[in-house]
Amino acid sequence: MTAVIILTLIGVLLGLAIALTVRYFGAPVDPLAEQVAELMPGANCGACGFAGCNDYVQALVSGKAKPGLCPSQSADALQKVCVLLGVASEGRAEKVAVVCCSGTDQYAIRRAFYNGVNDCHSAMLVAGGSKGCVYGCLGLGSCARACPFGAIEMRADHIAVVHPEICVGCGKCVTVCPRRIIKLVPKSAPVHVFCSSPEKAPVKRKVCSAACIGCRKCVKAAGENQMFINGFLASVNYENPPSADIVAVCPPKVLRTEAQPAASAASAAPAAPEAPAATTAP
Amino acid sequence: MTETTVRLPDTTRLVVSSSPHFHEDASVRKIMLVVIAALAPACLAGVWTFGLRALWVLLVCTAACMLVEALCVKLQGRASTLPDGSAALTGLLLGMNLPVTTPTWMCVVGAVMAIGIGKMIYGGLGYNPFNPALVGRVALLMAFPTALTTWVAPLASPLQWAGVDSVTQATPLGTPWAGEQLFSTWELFIGRTGGSLGETCVPALLLGGVLLIALKIIRWQVPVCFIGTVAVITGIAHLAAPEQVAPPLLHIMSGGLILGAFFMATDMVTTPLGRMGAVIFGVGCGVITAVIRLWGSYPEGVSFSILIMNAFTPLIDRYTAGKPFGVISHPGREVKL
Amino acid sequence: MTKKHLHFYGGVHPQESKTASGAAIVSAPLLATYVVPLQQHIGVPAKPVVAKGDKVLRGQLIGEPGGFISAAIHAPTSGTVKEIATCLGPAGNQLPAVILESDGDDLAAEPMPALDWPNASPDELKKRIAEAGIVGMGGAAFPSVVKLSPPPNKTIDTLILNGVECEPCLTADHRLMLEKPEQVITGARITARVLGVKRVIIAIEENKPDAVALLQEKAAGTEVEVRSLRVRYPQGAEKQLIYALTGRKVPSGGLPMDVGCVVQNVGTASAICEAVCEGKPLYERVTTVTGSPLVAPGNWRFRVGTPYAEAIKLAGGVKVDPVKIISGGPMMGMAVYSLDIPIMKNCSGILLLAADEVRQYESSPCIRCGRCNDTCPMGMMPGILSVQIEKERFELAEQWHVLDCIECGCCAYGCPAGRPLVQLMRRAKGEVMAARKAKAAKKA
């Protein structure tokens, strides 16, 4: 019984000590900063260019940064931040990441079995990875691991797929991808070119049946200055994007509204064969 | 030879990987199985000394450890890690560190502590900072001190079953030193004394230990420094006060010193990497063991010493990191984390 | 020869598998097409000096050095330039290449005049070495003329000829030393003259006693000393070799010239001899084609630009399909996935491995056994480094000396957890170098 009383007393005393310390020695907190911080997503993704949400809030409050740098903040929250800070809201173009490759196992040839560190950067060091196309998604998920929001799915058929409804456009995957095939595009853009290979069509077709063949059909079908061809690769003018129904003209179905659908069970290519079994060294 | 008979390799099924392309025939499983084999003589000696129940305790601990690991791995959604043999080894070591009369359910609790708390919550083999078998044993020692310090005297026949009615006996270290030995040196050597079931028979343990050193699975520096340090400190203390302190030979041959020095202070995951680190680790274990034995309230300190030194392992690694070929000073020491 | 050899720290002793050591060097027959990469060396690619449709003769210059660190490329045979395109390199990268269609006559171009090397000036000899497009033939393919032009503040007193061939399976250097000992020794003496050094050592591993005896006999009466070294991989790594022979330690991040040494492969010495004494540029080399899946492993003198497929055909083709095809030796070579890759100046071997010889890497955790610590010849801690690199803590890895790694593969060779340690080191080295470059760019 005495033990209980003593422990309770110690607890009360220590609690009091903490309260008093905060009361008299605590660092002054800017109430404005606290309010602004509450409107931040708190993911600390760093897309704003600061070390984290708190760092950005400090910069905002001291007037060193403009609101609207945070890509994952909702428009509503941004509006509230502007009101709190007393600045005019400039709005913000919402962006989203797109993996510009259609080379799932079904379409892209595999030139060798890669055995090593399960990471795109490391795979690049070994004969340039296992996919035949040197501009294609390696499918080992460096981007998915780098994504602070879990918006990138690594599909079993070796391609990364960004889920636009989760993606906030922070751009971390863009810098991480060793093949540089992830692009940040306006969220409002309806169609994207899911191919990144600048090679000539025959070269591309040899390694991937879902490659842009540079046929210019989309350019002709689209309005003035909506699509253009860069070398042998079509690209969307995101300043003035074509409407979604243009996808019908693309023969290899590279111009699409969303990422390659996962191969359905019936039409799926035969599962990638396992690497030849190897036993221990002699 | 004509052109048509020349067969070119099929390039569609080639593997690409980083160099080197030759590998030694080594695997984690092999290492663990060799260590288990090296423990076999000591286990047999335990059964010979303490009867069939010793075998039962060993089996229960091993099976329970494997079961707990299988369960944890399943919960974590990973592939089975049982084939690597590390859970079986932990179970065997746990059993060897328990008295023969340990109740079966207590063995299971020990296994849960060893594998669950000592290993799997850190992420499994390779990530655990403390020796899992010792975590299990020390947890049991703290929770059930009476059961873990009730020692049965060696049985007349290995076929006997040690139980509550068996004759109990104090361990050589558990009896206060009164200036003379309770057991003859020969009895101490072959392990006809009370104690944990796997720790008493010195020749069997030495056999396994020497095998591991010969196969380069453990570093000789650890047992030599560990046992040597205990011998030196207890030797000095014995010379200073022969009436209060047992001679060093008794300290070496009793308690878990030999078992600990050869099989637990040499656990790869939880001990330093390099040779210098092994020396420091061994000496540290020896000092702590001697201090606990001479001045602590426990008669035995090997488990505690190894666990304490486990905590220092990352630090030892950092400070013993050799300077690479051609480097003048070692900036690893200036690393600020 | 009684002098005790110093031993470098660590190392391993893999199975030697030098099955082709008894096979004499055979000149490979002429092919219809050669794919001659314009970048067979470290540095800037050579600039093509021929155009599509041009007729060239064997030994004619087809690519001139594209910069200071670059090398000239010569036509391997006479014929027509079909195209200037790209080809696949052993590292999986695309290299600019001249595709040469042979006319079958193999007409030689006018050779460069032979030089009287004992009386020629070092500058003259250097100019010839550059003109002949000679690069290090041991593997790195560093342009020799750059290596032989140390900055004036470095004094070179020792030339080491590397005939160690510590890589298992490879026998090209061994056969070359047995069949062309005079060339090797003359090449060494020419190089010594270029550098102005008096001390020349030819280093050979003890497992090639015939080569040691032969070279000792041939080198009698010259300044060249032949030393046999214990068999321990990586005995032929520059830093380890210099230490074993001279006791000098190349400083971290430094070059052999920092301790007054130049190390050169025996193949390079032979090529230098040919260039100086016969005026023949470097367009062919000895390469071992070996491995258990092959019908008849052996050593051939291939012209540069021979596709791997042709080399394997010469070796009789395969009995079973290999799982790995490696450019170079088993410890440091690169796994390739195509047989269209051409043999280049630095290709010392083509190795085929069958399924039972290959062990797959696993990404299992480090069990901290410490074997890599004991075998790392650079005295690093590959185990700890690999854990840091897996967590992408490259700055920490830099502080733990990841840049000192020579990628010899001893750590991964003995790793019981089967971790791809060398790949992790290479990743970290790349990241650290990139970070340093970015930092330097920021400063500038």
UniProtKB/TrEMBL annotation, chain A:
Residues annotated for [4Fe-4S] cluster 1 binding in this entry: 45, 48, 53, 70
Listed GO molecular functions?
4 iron, 4 sulfur cluster binding; electron transfer activity; metal ion binding
The UniProt keywords, alphabetically, are: 4Fe-4S, Cell membrane, Electron transport, Iron, Iron-sulfur, Membrane, Metal-binding, Repeat, Translocase, Transport
Q: Which cofactor does it need?
A: [4Fe-4S] cluster
InterPro entries per record? 4Fe-4S_dom, 4Fe4S_Fe-S-bd, 4Fe4S_Fe_S_CS, 4Fe4S_Ferredoxin_RnfB, Elect_transpt_cplx_RnfB/RsxB
Iron-sulfur: present as a keyword of the record? yes
For this record, an example GO cellular component is:
plasma membrane
UniProt family annotation: Belongs to the 4Fe4S bacterial-type ferredoxin family. RnfB subfamily.
Name the job this protein performs.
Part of a membrane-bound complex that couples electron transfer with translocation of ions across the membrane.
The name this protein carries in UniProt is Ion-translocating oxidoreductase complex subunit B
- Name the gene behind this protein: rnfB
TrEMBL record, chain B:
From which source organism is this entry?
Oligosphaera ethanolica
Key words, A-Z: Cell membrane, Electron transport, Flavoprotein, FMN, Membrane, Phosphoprotein, Translocase, Transmembrane, Transmembrane helix, Transport
Q: Which GO terms describe its cellular component?
A: plasma membrane
Q: Which Pfam families match?
A: NQR2_RnfD_RnfE (PF03116)
Q: How does it assemble?
A: The complex is composed of six subunits: RnfA, RnfB, RnfC, RnfD, RnfE and RnfG.
- What's its job? Part of a membrane-bound complex that couples electron transfer with translocation of ions across the membrane.
- List residues, modification FMN phosphoryl threonine: 171
S-adenosyl-L-methionine as a keyword? no
Q: What's the chief localization of this chain?
A: membrane
Q: What does the record give as the organism's lineage? A: Bacteria, Pseudomonadati, Lentisphaerota, Oligosphaeria, Oligosphaerales
The portions of this protein that span the membrane are 31-48, 54-72, 102-122, 134-153, 196-215, 222-241, 247-265, 277-295
* Cofactors (names): FMN
- State its location(s): Cell membrane
Write the protein's name: Ion-translocating oxidoreductase complex subunit D
Among the GO biological process terms of this entry, one is: electron transport chain
**Entry EC no(s):** 7.-.-.-
Q: Which family does it belong to?
A: Belongs to the NqrB/RnfD family.
Q: How does it sit in the membrane?
A: Multi-pass membrane protein
TrEMBL record, chain C:
Q: Where does [4Fe-4S] cluster 2 bind?
A: 376, 405, 408, 411
Q: What is its EC number?
A: 7.-.-.-
Q: Which InterPro entries match?
A: 4Fe4S_Fe-S-bd, 4Fe4S_Fe_S_CS, Ion_transpt_RnfC/RsxC, Nuo51_FMN-bd, Nuo51_FMN-bd_sf, RnfC_N, Soluble_ligand-bd
Query: Which Pfam family, any one of them, does this sequence belong to?
Result: Fer4_10
Q: Keywords, A to Z?
A: 4Fe-4S, Cell membrane, Electron transport, Iron, Iron-sulfur, Membrane, Metal-binding, Repeat, Translocase, Transport
Q: For [4Fe-4S] cluster 1, which residues are the binding ones?
A: 366, 369, 372, 415
GO CC terms in record = plasma membrane
Q: For this protein, what does the record note about how its cofactor is bound?
A: Binds 2 [4Fe-4S] clusters per subunit.
Indicate how the chain sits in the lipid bilayer.
Peripheral membrane protein
Which terms in the Gene Ontology molecular function aspect does this entry carry? 4 iron, 4 sulfur cluster binding; electron transfer activity; metal ion binding
Q: Which cofactor does it need?
A: [4Fe-4S] cluster
- What SUPFAM superfamilies would the database entry show? alpha-helical ferredoxin, Nqo1 FMN-binding domain-like
* GO biological process entries: electron transport chain
> NCBIfam families given for it?
PRK05035.1 (NF003454), rnfC (TIGR01945)
Give the UniProt family note: Belongs to the 4Fe4S bacterial-type ferredoxin family. RnfC subfamily.
Record's subunit section: The complex is composed of six subunits: RnfA, RnfB, RnfC, RnfD, RnfE and RnfG.
The record ties this protein, via PANTHER family, to: ION-TRANSLOCATING OXIDOREDUCTASE COMPLEX SUBUNIT C
Question: What protein name applies here?
Answer: Ion-translocating oxidoreductase complex subunit C
